[in-house]
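Q: What does the assembly look like in three dimensions?
Context provided by user:
Components: two
Sequences:
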Amino acid sequence: MYEILAKEELGTINKLMVIDAPLVARKAQPGQFVILRVIEEGERIPLTIADFDREEGTITLMFQEVGKSTMHLGLLEVGDELASFTGPLGRPTEIENYGTVVCVGGGVGIAPVYPIARALKEAGNEVFSIIGARTKDLLFWEDKMRSVSDELIVCTDDGSCARKALVTEPLKELCESRKDIAHVWAIGPAIMMKFASLTTKPFGVKTIVSLNSIMVDGTGMCGACRVEVGGRTKFVCVDGPELDGHEVDWDLLMARQRIYLTEEKRAFDEFKLKCECDSGL
Amino acid sequence: MAEAKKPKREKIPRQEMPRQAPEVRRRNFNEVALGYPDELMILESKRCLQCKKPKCIEGCPVEVDIPAFILKLQEGDLPGAAAALYADNNLPAICGRVCPQETQCEAVCVLAKKEEPVAVGRLERYVADWKMSQGMKAPDYVDGWRISQDTEAPEKAPPSGKRVAVVGSGPAGLTCAADLARYGHQVTIFEALHAPGGVLVYGIPEFRLPKAIVYAEVDYVKSLGAELILDCVIGKTLTLDDVFDDGYEAVFLGTGAGLPMFMNIPGENYNGVYSANEFLTRVNLMKGYLFPEWDTPVRIGRRVAVVGGGNVAMDAARCSMRLGADEVLIVYRRSRVELPARAEEAENAEEEGIVFHYLTNPVEIYGDDNGWVRGMKCIQMELGEPDASGRRRPVPIEGSEFDLDVDTVIMALGTRPNPMVFTDAGGLERTRWGTVVADEVTGRTTREGVWAGGDIVTGAATVISAMGAGKTAAADMDRYLRGESTTWWEPEEETAQA
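A: Here is the predicted structure of the complete assembly.
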């Protein structure tokens, strides 16, 4: 069950995995996510779907090793199996022909923005894409993104590759130069999505973000993922993950992402220590 | 009354079941109630009068032949007792622990009129635990011939060749699946989570219902022939329409009431405010109390307020205490008399040092600069006229606001059915409370071929009433699948619009 069919390291901290999950692949659409557990004692971690192949029955995931569970996931190899894999969860991206759209992917967020850009392109949109990362090593999928975009802008925070800029800079320029932009998708770290939303707000361009809250079940049962959107409480797992970036209470979202910081650090440190001990034996 | 030929009945008091002492158990997750030792079981079983017209059976939602299994205990025939019990109840180790016997079988026991009723639940638990310790092997069929080494296992009909689906592996789904398998149908249970059991696993804590007991009973249901598919969310991974397209001829919906409710008061999204569902799921399903050996953390503060007065509130409060909180409060807007929790559970909580604030309702949660709970503003209530439920309506007393010094708040305000299962499931009428409209007698919904039972129909209720609904639905599904019932149910006007 849920065998890892392929694994690829993209740069220093991004890892890609292709998982055998035919039932999930049969229904998967851009914008949705899955919840998996690495081991029996593992936590349920939500990951946005980076790609899917209905015929092969596979789901592609991209993740950064930011804590114990993702580090453990990263240690698995082709042929290993996950303890559980559930999906597709959340609402799919609302794909239609809007005219001109912009897809922004920051860091690991480049992965989930790719199937959205592809679907928007297939639906007949003129697609501008912007991808960015802190540094060259963290960039990936430039070719894939270019293949589904009418124009691709690449940038890095430190200028180690392509343009030295935050993704919000070219986004602002596009909003200024192209008055016909109908929709923006911005996916990446919360802080990037917050500033992308602030960038587009003065232009009145609808901006959809994909929120990465803490979740447990992912089916609306627990409310761990609740955020405020337009002053109303929403559950990211069932009302999202894609929500209106201009309406999201970003400070609340970011505070709630930090709930388990202490525990996460403790688990991560203990796991790293254990890994070092194991490899030292 | 006792039969004349029996020797004169010696007067035996109702036997208490040994429990962990409150000061010990309040800090561990081991089972509180320890079960009868043999000698207490024997004494207690002797108290049953073996009534000619037993009331207890009628008092049981799944109509267990209670005198029959107790008679076997009186005769010292444990295998016989197990056979009698499992004939009617597929999940006795669970029922013996979490059924509210005091309002069901034990409430109508003849002895209850003069003294205390027979401790049916404790005896049921004894038999189920004994059977589990012996290993349970369900009967099997090869080419229509029964082959089973286990004579205590219940009867099972030969294969019917019909495929049926059960959505949800909680008490309603497991009971329904077990009976459908015994009727000879090929059953598949679809479970959304990574473990079976539904509320028995994510909701009810280990110290009331050990998960090993639930998994053992799930294994028994599987041994009857039911297939279990985990990680499959009906409405997402597959829809109800997909299930029918895949060749299932009848479907039972037992997805419960999993959607948490909040109060919609200011500050409810601060860090440190949990729904009881989230808190209990972290603790029970994800074994948060074993962090970091198990990965899922659960954060508990120094002073915890649990809002609500039901069994879920008691469970959340008692888990908080076990996780090491200094002080745990129950905040309930009515008085002790209206407390919806089982009396036994409220007493357990009190014994463990949980403090009850009655006639108190939260109005606001305060947060600190980092977005963490730092207190809760409450208002004093008084009881006014009875409301629709017959209970006196709590009314706020003007100007009586006061602050509680708490850093964690758990909202245990009840739950509603999760609407996810209704995606691509046309023809299923629902009430305005989100519950599915179903015939009380058979469990039939407004869509032909679909039955429903348990909390998805009633809203949050008890394990045993869900099991009762699963059982009656299974019987009706069997009639339908055998072609003995041709016209489908239609609701009366008011029900459909309610």
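Follow-up: Residues 261-280 of chain A form the longest helix (20 residues).
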